[in-house]
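INFO  loader      accepted 1 record
INFO  loader      residues=102
INFO  predictor   begin
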Amino acid sequence: MGYIKELREAIRKLHGAEATHVESVPVKETFQGKTVWEGVVEVFDLRGHPKATRAYAWAHDTDDPKQPRRHVTVLHIEPVTSPVLAVRAAIVQEHRERGKES
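INFO  predictor   done
INFO  writer      dumping tokens
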């Protein structure tokens, strides 16, 4: 399965909407002068979602053999209105989840 198709499938499963790929946007997020995330965010238009008309998605490999690849999807709902803000929201969410595990 191709990368875009893989992300479309993740959006469908997670958000119950059909996704059409719009563009690929390179994003580099820094914090205190250090790169905390760098990659390409895929932008999708959504059909069938009650609140969002767009979603941002990407995937990355993990060290978990049970789930070797993690898909990240973020809906275009205020305050998340761009690929950069989607990355920031995902970083904050991941940080919160790590805090709960400690």
